[in-house]
Fold:
Amino acid sequence: MFRRRTLLTAAVALPTALATSSALAGTASADGSHAFPTELALPDGFLPEGIAIGPGPFAYFGSRADGRIFRVNLVTGTGRVVSAGPGTPSVGLKTDERRIYVSGGPAGNARLIDLRTGTILATYTFATAPTFINDVVLTPRAAWFTDSNNPFLFGVPRNRHGVPGQADVIRLPLSGDYVHGAGFNVNGIARTPDGRALLIVQSSTGLLFRVDPATGVARTVDLGGELLTNGDGLLVEGRTLYVVQNQLNRVSVFRLDRAGGSGRLQERLTDPRFDIPTTVASFGNRLYLPNARFTTPPTPTTPYNAVAIRK
Structure:
């Protein structure tokens, strides 16, 4: 597998000759992940969008076609359906040690799934059409979901000893610097490095916002003039922010301050195997991204996959 990496400095990008392709398969790592497959086959006609990794070396993917959840062993590349879909999409998803939290896209809902059995524990209704419940992030207190068609975040409390009910859902209006416009708005979501706030990307404007989860007040993150055009999935590790820019077939990497109020572009990652990646998750020294293939007409036999690149 080969990947093109573009490094940036505060002044200019490194010469093209230095941004060459490098082989991942031979890269040594402390966790041995260099031996793992660099491409993961998903079922034909699956229409993937979201990815979550863990516990352990297992990746979970949601189907936009029918809502199935497909689990892949990152060591062997083998996979199987672990939860039958309800016939409505599964979009963004996250896992903890016991559950899978799934965004329902145009169904306007979210699902809570038992990680061990695949049983749907609860379904939460957030909004009615037009709506697109897109992505989700876990904090110690709640799972927060974005709606790309409405200026709200929705929260489901994380209850270790029971399953929250519909009455427990939090409806958080966005305010402050955030301006809701036409088209696809809030998409990916992550936590700030200090864990005190949320980061959301607005696909239609390319802006990144820091949101106070107690008030919904959003402040524009200073990215030094960089716009996150076609911004989709977000991933924060330490003070590093990875932003998937789906139609651009790239991942932009930023260094954030601890509060998540500002950041600077460090590099852009691309790969010839990208076919409109949407979301990103991490394991070992790799990033894993599902190819949504939005520009490919979907059929029951259309192939889909996810690819791994070096961080």
